[in-house]
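R.M. (postdoc): so does anyone remember the format we settled on? I'll just put the structure tokens first.
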């Protein structure tokens, strides 16, 4: 049996329970582990399979699921209090990796991986494996792969006499044409505007122009490059002129809801959202959707690639049992089952299996798989500037671009704000 706790109950208990048990045994059997996950397509796919693991291993998994930011708060609370009440947690090393590694929050997985004869770590593409490594140590095991892609309404594009944009310039002109030909009745493009979430979809505008977040030294921001100003200008223009009302409050949930309801002609979002917008039970446009690669800039199509992972807390007192769960959840067998729920497999053997490719039984899914496969070789794994202050740096970027969306700052002013704001945060990497 697993016990599910609501976010409200857990957060209410947090102050009186978790801090008090820092470093001590969390109670419960040695064959019982605590897993914390974000509300995410992978989480929704893995939960129904967990009873299989429990039967096979004899280990009980107590699951706690939260909205993403609540999950981060919960994980942070456990780690900062050195609590053993959390054993396994969903992690995004590209976001918090350096910060958590510096604080010794991760239990390194290298010895577990090398000691698991049937695990086959080489089955993960090099870029996926690299995304799980911080300071030379593997801190998590990959559970998915996702990229920023462009979804579009095939029926509307046919009606308006348009073709999907292949370049950044075409993306803006296509959005303008949709606004004109729809008479303002359809939102031309849904995209992120919420500060903390924006860098994931903004990054490709920068990288496709040939600009990295930082210069080669890794500690000097790159927003004094004129191409960074261009990227800010284009993203903010798309959001302000062609995005939905209230776009600065939107992240993937709002964008997908707009697309599924038939209220947007294009959506710039994670490949993960294909299951949200194409579910025939909830989507009004499931039969009319297409997907193409992120439009190319002067440096080509350089989308953002990221993988979530499963990490083990360094304060867990049940690390062996925790690894057994991580090993099972990221095995080829389990990942094959997860593909039935639309989870793109990070393992090469699963992605190339006949069972998986046969499951891509619609034009949309076939296009989606082709775009995602290509993105893994051309994309950038840097979701934002890399460093111990990654969350703060993403907020600096999101806040500044948001001001341009709201027409409260020029693109050049925003670039200067980002340049000045990132510099002291990146300097912490040298501390």
């Amino acid at each position: 049996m697993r016990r599910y706790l609501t976010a409200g109950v857990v957060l209410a208990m947090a102050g009186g329970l978790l801090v008090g048990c820092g470093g001590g045994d969390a109670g419960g059997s040695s064959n019982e582990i605590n897993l914390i996950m974000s509300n995410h397509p992978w989480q929704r796919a893995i939960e129904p399979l967990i009873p299989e693991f429990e039967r096979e291993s004899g280990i009980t998994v107590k699951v706690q699921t939260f909205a993403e930011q609540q999950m981060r708060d919960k994980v942070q609370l456990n780690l900062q209090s050195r609590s053993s009440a959390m054993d396994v947690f969903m992690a995004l090393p590209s976001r918090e990796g350096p910060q958590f590694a510096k604080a010794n929050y991760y239990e390194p997985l290298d010895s577990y991986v090398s000691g698991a004869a049937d695990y086959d770590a080489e089955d993960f593409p090099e870029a996926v494996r690299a995304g799980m490594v911080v300071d030379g140590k593997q801190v998590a095991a990959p559970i998915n792969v996702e990229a920023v892609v462009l979804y579009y309404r095939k029926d509307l594009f046919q009606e308006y006499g348009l073709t999907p944009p292949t370049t950044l310039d075409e993306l803006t002109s296509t959005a303008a044409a949709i606004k004109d030909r729809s008479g303002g009745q359809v939102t031309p493009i849904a995209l992120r505007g919420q500060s903390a979430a924006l860098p994931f979809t903004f990054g490709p505008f920068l990288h496709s122009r040939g600009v990295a977040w930082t210069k080669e030294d890794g500690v000097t921001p790159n927003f004094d490059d004129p191409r960074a100003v261009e990227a800010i200008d284009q993203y903010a223009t798309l959001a302000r002129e062609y995005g939905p009302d209230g776009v600065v409050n939107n992240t993937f949930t709002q964008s997908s809801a707009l697309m599924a309801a038939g209220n947007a002609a294009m959506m710039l979002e994670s490949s993960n959202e294909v299951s949200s917008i194409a579910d025939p039970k909830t989507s009004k446009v499931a039969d009319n959707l297409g997907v193409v690669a992120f439009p190319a800039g002067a440096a080509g199509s350089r989308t953002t690639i990221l993988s979530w992972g499963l990490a083990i807390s360094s304060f867990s007192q049940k690390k062996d049992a925790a690894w057994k769960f991580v090993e099972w959840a990221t095995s080829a067998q389990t990942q094959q089952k997860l593909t039935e729920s639309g989870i793109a497999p990070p393992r090469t053997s699963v992605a190339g299996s006949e069972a998986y490719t046969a499951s891509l039984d619609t034009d949309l899914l076939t296009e989606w798989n082709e775009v995602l496969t290509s993105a893994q070789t051309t994309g950038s794994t840097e979701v934002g500037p890399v460093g111990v202050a990654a969350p703060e740096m993403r907020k600096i970027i999101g806040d500044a671009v948001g001001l341009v969306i709201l027409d409260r700052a020029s693109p050049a002013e925003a670039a200067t704000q980002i340049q000045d704001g990132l510099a002291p945060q990146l300097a912490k990497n040298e501390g």
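R.M.: ...and that's the designed sequence above, right after the tokens. Also worth knowing: The radius of gyration is 22 Å. The chain has two domains: 7-145+307-351, 147-305+373-430.
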